Amino acid sequence: MLYRVLAIVAVLLLAVGGCSSGQGAGQRTLKLWHYEGPDSAMGAAWALAVKQFEAAHPDVKVVLEEKGFEQIRKTAPMVLNSKDAPDVLEYDKGNATSGLLARQGLLTDLTDEVTRRGWDKLVTGESQTTARYDDKGVMGSGRWYGVPNYAEYVSIYYNKDQFAKYGIAVPTTLDQLTAAMDKFVAAGITPLASAGQEYPAQQLMYELALTKASRDWVDRYQRYTGKVDFHDAAWTYGATTFADWVHKGYLSKDSVGAKAEDMGLSFIQGRSPIMVTGSWWFGRLVKDVKDFQWGSVLWPGLTAGSAGNMWVVPKGSKNKDLAYDFIAITMSPPVQDALRDAGGVPLVRNGSASDPKAKEVTDNFGVLSTQDRLAFYPDWPAPGYYDELVSAVQKLTTGTATPSQVLDEIAKPYQENLANVGR
Amino acid sequence: MVLWSLVLLAVLMLVPFVIVAMNAVKSPAEYATGGPIKPPHGIDLHGIVDFWQRVDFGGKLLNSVVISGSVAVLAVVVSVLNAYALGIGRVRGRTWILVVFLVANTVPQEALVYPLYYLANQTGLYDTRLGVILVFTIIQGAFGTYLLSSTFVAFPPELLEAARIDGAGKLQTLLRIVVPVSRPTLGMLMVFFFIWTWNEFFLPLVLLISNENQTVTVALGVLQGQRMMDATMTSASALLGVIPAIAFFLVFQRTLTRGITAGAVK
């Protein structure tokens, strides 16, 4: 027994040692991490970018590691502080993520490279906000710590067949949207697909608040440029209207326990004719909706959205020059076009897509971007705010708390965080 | 009556597995139109095959086997040595030592993460399988020590005395008497350690960052995107992830039952 056990140990330990392979001499490697699936628009476009990079750098081997979002989110500060950091990686934008890493000094300051390579001419307007962080890690000003490669925004997706069946016009204002939903409710249909357990419900409440908000309101909330009153007209309207919509049956009370996936399925299966959500669903809808025609239309006024996740270069990257070359390739027209054609929203627009739906999505982003209507996401201002918002909006959906109580609930962690960032 | 409630319980336990297995063999289009509960029309193995290739599942299996296997064996060795000193050797202050072990065992892993990360990073064991093996050998060994010590306390003193009269030293007594007699218990511990280590997610997630070192459970996490999930492929991966643990359990089931009853008779 004992000898057998010792033999097993020896074999296993040998296996551990034997697997650590040596590095090839002379050849450089670019270690690249991202967390997009191979079928997603970004995954497809970046696979092309890797190919182009390898063609342009024959002596460099690209080691692409596909990660899970959770793994990057939980381990990024630790990984970037070790010698095993990748040379370039995709990372989430916002104060609580990239801003925090920038403040901790774990990211390379890209400002010189950005101006030298002209990326600041490609990433313009509000899209720059999430790429730049000040010395407190607050976005919107200061040095560049990342380069976004795509964009995303929340809009209204609607089932054209259902709208035609009940003779309803495409809604372009909030009044038209509520009128349309009234007709669906009268016909016994729950018009709005939603999900209370994840981002959709909180984003809907934010969208509603945004209809009464201004750019200055968004800056105060997201960039701490001034006082935020959670009982002002916009927040009050957002919370009371959301509760009202539940009451009127626009969205189901049962959606409180639903996940984003359930919301999507409910739209894809044609059970709910309207879905207010982000462009990250676009590719999935193109692929999975088979039985009806659908389209997207802009949310009236400001809307949640921003430049997408960005490329960041860890402080400990050993091949920064290669990392910059790779980023440059992802910003180039062929890769951005590939991203667009695969159902993503490119940051750099060169002509329009041949597919009418893709054209709709990219053109709509053009409108938002030129009219300065991107308002980021409600969960950005404070770390851990996502879960607070989920639970608050759930209470609003079930009616266990009044709009005013809910606003008090979300005000607390926000104000606590203000003290932490020193504002 | 008892039988029926057992059947009911078994059905309830099996329902999630059935749903996972059902969705694992659906095509994504079928899932999109029918939802998760509807039974599949045919068997579509694309999700399973795609996932296998995408994450190089064979490599992850090898990693998991190497890590769990090493931990199972090493932790049992460590536990036996500790428990021999505490349970049979009757070291002074052993109750307190055991309490310390138990407390160390109840500390949540989230609290251990930063110190472990720091140590691993300083010693060059960060992102190595050896680092994870050491960490889990100690964690599992702490529990094993606690459990074995209490069974060793009840070890028949006649046997120990007989060994001493026959001129056996301390090491000989351990190897020739104690280990053979408690073999069923040790076997059971080893199986448990293997399965527990196999199912560990959080520490491997943090300590094994490069894909080539990852374990099965960590690889499953790759499919959870920031906002999107692929339900059919997630089910396929979940199915692939539990099969090895179930297979291992079935193979060693006899060891398990023997170990449990051996403990009970004493």
Automatic annotation (TrEMBL), chain A:
Gene3D superfamilies: Periplasmic binding protein-like II. InterPro entries: Bact_solute-bd_prot1 (IPR050490), SBP (IPR006059). Pfam families: SBP_bac_1. This is Extracellular solute-binding protein. It comes from Solihabitans fulvus.
